[in-house]
Amino acid sequence: MSPSLDPQEFAWLCTFLRNESAIIIDETKEYLVTTRLAPVLKELGLKTLSELLTQLKRRPLTAVHQRVIEAMTTNETSFFRDLHPFDTLRNDILPELVKKRGGAGLNIWCAASSTGQEPYTIAMVLREAFPDVAARSKILCTDINNTVLERTKQGLYTQLEVNRGLPAPLLLKYFDRKGQEWQVKEELRRMIDARVMNLAIPWSGVAMMDIVFIRNVLIYFDIETKRSIIGRIRKNMALDGFLFLGGAESLLNIDSDFARTMAGKSTLYKRAA
Ligand SMILES: C[S@@+](CC[C@H](N)C(=O)[O-])C[C@H]1O[C@@H](n2cnc3c(N)ncnc32)[C@H](O)[C@@H]1O
Asked: Which atom of ligand 1 is nearest to the CA of 114?
């Protein structure tokens, strides 16, 4: 294990991560930094975190900076995570929006989509309920971590990953066996548009969205960053669109222009009238 950083170096690293990714790490998380950056040191042939910091202090930003940011992201995800948001999507949200749009394709955004289990879950739910609409719909997947987006594009998952939450009939219907792994079929992969995006920086070129999933990422940001991201997402949403957050997240004291609503077992948000 590499010798730890002195308090000033640790503070510098926290500021770097906050500035470049909006992720907040405090002094209680030094173990997290040491554990997550140990493989990066090994890859770069460095012995200490101080040596890594010397590289991080150089500008312009390079692949080393990106590697460190990626190492510090938490990419935990699974198919049908929490289950009820996808029941609500199938039973309440999709029927309403498909009817309102007269069967036109939907624009769905999965922000902070990690390795893709969440957007492919949405794709399967849509495809099962409204196959024609699914064929015309796009799911934008964005994440700050390019490595997880590359995995999303490939759509390759291990046995362990498909065992977590994916019902067997959907595995057999929408995946092909590829050696030890399972690959999402082309009919779902072509619904996906995967792009690197740091949510903390204003974006452009994003279509008006009918549905936005931004789950289990706001927890890593401070309140000002949450406000600015949610405010920009609101402006990128259709007036009758729906926003899904993670189970531990809410918009209380964050954005009063979103109204909280219940559908099925889910709490979700609509733009206030
Ligand atoms: C815990 S995962 C959530 C995945 C999925 N939404 C879910 O709920 O299962 C959090 C994701 O947020 C991404 N992330 C962290 N900071 C980000 C930022 N500033 N901009 C965009 N994505 C970010 C991470 O790379 C990670 O893939």
From this structure: 27
Instruction: Give the E-state strand segments of the chain in sequence order.
Output: 107-111, 138-143, 156-157, 175-178, 181-184, 192-196, 209-214, 237-245, 258-263, 266-271
pLDDT tens digits for range 129-163 = 999 999 999 999 999 999 999 999 999 999 999 99
- CA-derived radius of gyration, the chain: 20
Are 112 and 18 part of one and the same domain? no
pLDDT digit string, tens, across residues 156-166? 999 999 999 99
Whose alpha carbon is nearest atom 12 of ligand 1? 112
- The strand order across the sheet containing 156-157 reads 156-157, 181-184, 175-178
Are residues 42 and 92 both part of a single domain?
A: no
* Count of domains for the chain: 2
- 15-40, pLDDT tens digit by residue? 999 999 999 998 889 999 999 999 99
Domain shared by 64 and 90, yes or no: no
Q: How close is the Cα of 77 to the center of ligand 1, in Å? A: 9
